[in-house]
Amino acid sequence: MDKGARYKAHIDRADLLLDLGRSGEALEEARRAIGVDAEQAGGWFEACRAFLALEESAEALEHADAGLARSPRSSWGHRLRSTALSQLGRHPEALEEADEALKLSPQEPLAMRRRARCLYMLDQDDAALAQTDEAIQVDPENAYGYSLRGDILAYLKRLAPAEASFREALALAPERADLHRRLGDALRRQDRHLDALESYAAAVSLNPADKKARKGFRLSAEAIEGEGTGGWKVGAALAGTAAVAFLAGRWWVVSGSLFSAAVAMGVLPKKRNQARIQERERLWGLWEQIRKHDG
Fold it and tell me: What pTM was estimated for this model as a whole?
């Protein structure tokens, strides 16, 4: 395999590993690419990406600088440098780099989103929303634009439109645990705790290590517990034999046998409520797992 082919193989493997979240391995592949041809900017930029994923911001900035020394008109490089500066809390400089990236690639949605995030971090919220909407118009099939818009709207406490943005993002990327968590946060802040539980449960199912989703689930479950008989009543020892039934206009936790009797007597429509009960049992089962895991 010649030098060019070896370099490309390492770059392609680093890129794939980063997409899989295997940042440490990606960094090793980027270093191998640099070893093959240190004068190419791509290896330095891939290493920068890996350092950003590992939250090693100073090293990321050094590698962005090294890449830009080799390719000073790379919009990608300026975007990466902007991200590294943001991680370091150097937000005005990050915006300057984002401006340069967008100047070099005026129709690049990634550059637009990077600039929007910089504006957001500098509390220039209206400008950030405008830039985000422009990015969405250019790239309407990308979930990141809707997610960023949701983040900004949630920060501004415009929770209903934030929720709508997160739902649009999830329609495009239902496998992203962070989007389910963000939607859960928006719902919880609107006191829609049952809906929030469903979103947090989806987030934890996709990423059991998501501590923020587990915390959100706990907060919504505890809020529901606190409502007592005025709404939900959740027993600390709720097990698989318990169920939740809708009686007299309210949700109650009852035993499985009482629920079955209620269905038999015609108090509860059988098919519709059985499906809902199964879902609620799943949610509360997860709640028990989270409480046992987190103490």
Answer: 0.73
